[in-house]
Design brief:
With about 60 residues, the protein is an all-alpha fold. It has four helices and no strands. It has helices at about 10, 20-30, 35-45, 50-65. The radius of gyration is 19 Å and the shape is extended. The termini are far apart.
Length: about 60
Amino acid sequence: MRQEEWDQGILSDATLELDLSTQGILATKGPITLREQADFHHQLDSQGLQDLIAEFESKSDEKAS
């Protein structure tokens, strides 16, 4: 793909949509660790990810109707 065809929006910095208070809270918590990510995914699996997917699909179907 030629550079002239690039979507310049992809190359620019993302805007942060958090207020200063929330930014401060998140800054004190630090980055999300690999262990936290693994625990999150394990929790999704154990709580029935298929149930969650079905819930979103049903809401999507309601909006389409």
